[in-house]
Amino acid sequence: MSISRALTGMLVCCFLSVQLVLVPAASAAVVSTQTVLHTEQRGAQEARIISALQRAQAVTMLKDNGLSVEQVELRLQRLSNAEVAQLADRADQIPSGEGVLGVVLVVLLILLILEILGFTNISSKI
Known about the structure:
Elements: H1 2-22, H2 33-53, H3 56-64, H4 69-76, H5 81-93, H6 100-117
């Protein structure tokens, strides 16, 4: 009986030690309200920019410069929160159908800056 107890004890130790080694510890962090708000605001700002860029005049200008709305959407993800906020403010200030040229030019300017800094590679697709 003592051999079976010793064997049982050794098996329990082996299983517990294997479980401690193989099972990763869970980690969690507190997410601040500011972080959640910034994430939601950025999503709303990107949506406003994209809606401005989907106007017919903006799409035509983007195509004339060798870009599509999808490419601009991908580039928006690389912009900082401040740059996205600036573009969204400009998009909100422009009445529907008027001044789209300004938004498109700002987007093209930012894309040019990203191209010069080496963050994007638009020139190889043109």
